[in-house]
Specification:
Helicase, Ruva Protein, domain 3, 16 helices, Zinc Finger, Delta Prime, domain 3, five-stranded parallel beta sheet, about 325 residues, alpha/beta
Length: about 325
């Protein structure tokens, strides 16, 4: 890997994308199954489901590079279903690519439909017949965030891979690898902040690192939090504890500082509050009540309610929930 200056804004997502399955971090079981397909030079239609930024597309691209080598451009096609999602694409572009023979020693080509859960119902119905008709020389790989949005007939035609968010250790390996090759100095607090912000999403971790590295090669915690518009977990936890202890004015002042200092949106604040409530040292019944109310206020904001009013209302509810005689 090259060592161009971190100040030059380059697409690190592509630069550090795995080229071999052995380079993929995490998902050991899924990678082992894909490696077996490569070894046998054969594979079924695939359905990869899981949250964004965890390596679904990277696994398929790495597998394609191992299978086809220099001929990957002629034998592999990638379509983003969020852009090309209609029935005309299935009947036209996909069918045109599928009906031609592969130009390699592998007996099939691969079509990757990224974000396949955005395909229209008509397009998914048309894809059923296309997958069957050209299965002798084409394999379809469907990648999606929500497998429930893929119609059952398509799911039954595929080997299903369910990916989970990457663990903190896996995100840490990715961060350390990039820091090493980009000659970055990474504080321990900054590394922890990247892992916290990423929350299992490798794409988010890489983008946050590149954004912070544009300002210099020494990454600090403040740089990471500024780029990602996140507050320190300790500051959010302090606000929650102030509210639960009955100090509403102090909690609201802390909320003011978070939204002004970090420029956080209401959705960002409530997301971090949710993460901190899970680690509170209170009984489970009170946690259940708080999370229930957090869900209610999050829904209200998603429907257009004023974020500031909703967040203050949530803090007010926490003040009431913190009283010893409170019964929910």
């Amino acid at each position: 890997m090259s060592k161009e200056g971190a100040g030059e804004f380059q697409p690190w997502l592509e630069k550090y994308r795995p080229r071999k399955l052995s380079e993929v971090i995490g998902h050991k079981d899924a990678v082992a199954r894909l490696q077996a397909y490569v070894k046998n030079r054969n594979l079924p239609h695939l359905l990869l489901a899981g949250p964004a930024g965890i390596g679904k597309t990277s696994c398929i691209l790495a597998m394609a590079h191992e299978l086809y080598g220099e001929n990957v451009g002629q034998c592999f096609a990638e379509l983003n279903a969020s852009d090309e999602r209609g029935i005309d694409v299935v009947r036209g572009h996909i069918k045109d690519f599928a009906r031609t023979l592969p130009m390699s020693d592998v007996q099939f080509k691969i079509i990757l439909l990224d974000e396949a859960d955005n395909l229209t119902d008509d397009a998914q119905q048309a894809l059923r017949r296309t997958m069957e008709k050209y299965s002798s020389n084409t394999r379809f790989c469907l990648s999606c965030n929500y497998s429930s949005k893929i119609i059952e007939p398509l799911q039954s035609r595929c080997a299903v891979f369910r990916f989970k968010p990457l663990g903190d250790e896996d995100i840490g390996k990715i961060v350390d690898n990039i820091a090493k090759h980009e000659d970055l100095k990474l504080d321990a607090e900054a590394r922890t902040a990247i892992i916290y912000v990423a929350a299992g999403d490798a794409r988010k971790a890489v983008n946050v690192m590149q954004g912070a590295a544009a300002m210099g090669k020494h990454l600090k915690e403040d740089d990471i939090l500024a780029v990602s518009s996140r507050a320190r977990p300790s500051e959010v936890a302090e606000m929650v504890k102030l509210a639960l202890s009955g100090r509403f004015t102090d909690a609201r002042k802390q909320l003011d500082e978070l939204m002004v200092k970090y420029g956080m949106s209401g959705e960002d604040v409530i997301s971090q509050i949710h993460r901190e409530v899970n680690s509170l040292e209170v009984d489970d019944r009170k946690k259940v009540e708080l999370i229930d109310r957090i869900g209610e206020y999050d829904f209200r904001m998603s429907q257009g309610a004023d974020p500031r009013i909703q967040l203050e209302a949530l803090l007010a509810h926490m003040v009431l929930a913190g009283k010893p005689d409170h019964k929910g």
